[in-house]
Task: structure prediction
Amino acid sequence: MSGVIEIEGLRKTFHSLRHGRRIAVDGFDLLVEAGQVHGFLGPNGSGKTTTLRALLGLVRADAGRMRVLGADAPEHLPRVAGRVGAIVESPQFFGNFTAYRTLRLLAVAGGVPVRRVDEVLEQVGLGDRGHERVKGYSLGMKQRLAVASALLKRPELLILDEPANGLDPAGIREMRDLTRALAGNGVTVLVSSHILAEIELICDHVTIISRGRRVAAGRVSEVLAGYDRDECLVRADDLPRAEELLRAAGLAVTVAADHLLVGGVPDPALVSRTLGEQGVWVRELAPVRPDLESVFLELTGAGPHPALPRQVDHAPADPAAAPVIDLDVRGVEA
Result:
């Protein structure tokens, strides 16, 4: 299967006198297809940023094959660099430059029409602050400037590492709307973020990495469905009696302070019928569906159910790519 981004078997090891040998990425696969808004998730230290840096030629991989927009990466990445926009980690800007001057220099260096500067400043919500010095910007404003720099070239592929970093709730919503608008115009977006609820709102596909390895990949809905235990939250007028009746009906019941969690219930009507027939009246009956945060915590070893499968794979990547080059992504960041 071919895609806009294809990574197969990526491996990267770091060595240092202080920490010795550390495997950052260990046989990682990733497939991002055209038109997707693809979430790339993992705990701190899981290998997300190393993967993105290797993909963009900022670090040299030890093994693996990669392709970006059909070009072997990193050797042939310069052929497609003009079609890629990216911010990785926290881009740095000259504090005494204004946002406009910063973007204008990047536009000139990248052969981009200068009129794009005003367009991208408006696009990220900095239209009225573009002539202020960057050193006076908040963290969120600097993040907006970084996204503006990545949009200068009207990229076909946009790679965003923590784009909502430092943004307030209104800014996060604006970034969400911007991402959706870009996807609606045919831009493929790969976004890494710690705000899992936001990823669930804007992404149609997701890949989760833990300890350098892929532990889940596929449509968000499919990944979540793999962890749906058909559970219901039940509140009743006689909770101990409800527990007794539901256990007698062969259902798995977990008792909490003011409710029951009943598992293995594909149809909630079974609960209300079982209790109602015995004169126990249900006050609340609500299906409990997994969200991306709970699945993420379980897959990465931080959740309450370590016995769950460690691999959920709804979209196996089968890329045909190659090794690694040097790409100056300042124009991508730039």
In short: The mean pLDDT is 85. The chain has two domains: 5-225, 231-288.
